[in-house]
Amino acid sequence: MRIRSFVFVLLIFAWAGLLREELAIAQAPGSGSTAAPRTTAQVQANLAQLMRGILLPNSNVVFFAQSNNPADVKPAPDPSSATDPLASTYGGWTAVENSSLALSEAARLLTVPGRVCSNGRPVPVMNADWVKFVQGLRQAGITAFKAAQTKNQDKMLDAADVVTTACTNCHNVYREKTAQQGGLASRCTK
């Protein structure tokens, strides 16, 4: 249960860092602006940590809604400290909407230069297929969000399939490596 609250805190810190970066837009010299110069995002988590901390937990909330009605989830005794997003203050369908948006927004974290895979190899942020896979995840999150807004489990089933496909497309190329392909040491390579 504490893992989910950690994930929530991690999401807040990631969002705050991105917001801070977006607000620090560089201005041309002499423009008269007092805006702070643009900063470079610092990478804290490797790719596996990012997946385990943000993408996997949020996709699980989306996947939950394909076979269970989020409205049927009873709020936790103290929803404000619930570690299950579905039973938290913003639980039920709102949790599914929020998790869908988190998937879409977190996709940008997959493009931050300097991030490494758990094996130490750089995440291939410049590869055309990586960019395409990240865009697929971003769109899958939006698809899931729109489905969650309808509160229709059939639409969530379809949306969950879109999320699964987006994840699988990338995993098939960069994650799932057999022993003959080099196993874990070959992750983040084609």
Report on the structure:
With 190 residues, the protein is mainly alpha-helical. The protein has five helices and no strands. Residues 6-33 have low confidence and may be disordered. It has one domain (2-186). The protein is globular.
* Gross morphology: globular
- Order of SSEs: HHHHH
Our count of helices gives: 5
Helix content: 40-55%
Low-pLDDT runs of 5+ residues are 6-33
Q: How many angstroms separate the termini? A: 36 Å
**Major sheet description:** none
- Give the strand tally: 0
Number of domains: 1
Mean pLDDT: 83
Radius of gyration over C-alpha positions, nearest whole angstrom? 18 Å
Structural class: mainly alpha
Strand fraction band?
under 5%
Q: How would you sum up this structure in a few lines?
A:
About 55% of the residues lie in helices and about 0% in strands.
Keywords:
about 0% strand, about 190 residues, mainly alpha
Describe the secondary-structure layout.
Elements: H1 2-23, H2 47-64, H3 92-106, H4 128-150, H5 153-175
Helix pairs in contact: 2-3, 3-4, 4-5
